[in-house]
Amino acid sequence: MVLRPTMKVSQLIAVFTLKTAKAAANKRPSAHFIPSFIPSSKIISNNDGFTKSITSASDIPLFLRGGQQIQSRTNLRTHPILNESSLLFNVSPFFRYNSILGLINFLGMGISLAFPRMQYHLDLLGTGAFALASILTVWSAAYTFADLPLRMQVSSVAVVIWSVKLAGFLFFRACQVKDDKRLESLLSTAPGTITFWVLSFIWGFVSSLPHSLGLTSSLMGPNIYLLLGSIIFATGLLTESTADFQKWMWKQRHPGKFCNAGLWSISQHPNFFGNVLIWTGIAVMNAPALIQPIAFDDSSSIVTKAVTVVWSLRRAIMALLSLMFLWFFFNGQAQGVIGSGVQESLKRYGDDSNYQDYVDTVPLLVPDLRILFDKR
């Protein structure tokens, strides 16, 4: 091969690496494996090599410039993000999303430290950070929203809709209520304020893993997952929004009484249940894209293959752990293990026999539709 005089050192290294890899591949053919439970998965081949001459930095294979490249002879569904249809996983959107999330929470912490008694910005920034991170992650990248796979578009829009909706409602409620008594003692000190915003970031990081991890993959996935996830998300959004609206209206019409109307008659915390459904829907949308196609040699041991399979599922496992975290967190709040909400409710309504019956008969999270039919 004749190299041009203008070829850079990095290009020489790329050529040498490619020739070495090709020579190694010719000595021992590799076997490729994708778990059979991956929907519409195909056998991936990376033996095609990179044959065209390298004349510019853009010609260097993507895996030498960052990210992971898998060339395929099959119809594995990918999308040409950054004009690289072979890019399957790229962690930069994940770090970009969470960096923005962290910066917004850091801004909120600064405002709280400067104005200790002000609470209007707590949920506006804490919950609105999800929307800002989703928007800015796409806006700050080298590709436009239209370049994203449909799965990423729907997932991003879903996060923005939920975040703007909830942040707007909580900001409206804060403007009406003025102060949240539950947070006064915590936010009255600098360590307490820092703790609040650190926990706010951790909450945002963990709960949005189904979306942020989905941003790392350009795999399209079967449309059935996108459809099913969208239905679950819409159900959760409707449940959470309806529950918040019903409780707010109840408090305006029946001050000093506990809410047991509408969704609150079949679940003690329907808003929590709706939130779990929201993130479950987003996880289902992105589920197929969270499983990484893998390859190993014929000589690989069973242990190596098992570890490789688990490693290929790491994103899906993290998304599942995120949903489990949400469930146990909300369940802990509903039981009074986390937070003081249950204790405060007992102080207010503990002497009310109707409230005691409500606590004994109505489930904590999952709505019991049989209660509606029993009332009829």
TrEMBL record:
InterPro entries noted in UniProt: UstE-like
Pfam families: DUF1295
TM segment ranges: 94-115, 122-142, 154-174, 186-204, 224-243, 272-291, 311-330
Keyword Cell inner membrane: no
This protein's UniProt keywords: Membrane, Transmembrane, Transmembrane helix
Superkingdom per UniProt: Eukaryota
Keyword Transmembrane assigned: yes
Gene3D superfamilies: 1.20.120.1630
Name of the protein this chain belongs to: Steroid 5-alpha reductase C-terminal domain-containing protein
Species assigned in the record: Cyclotella cryptica
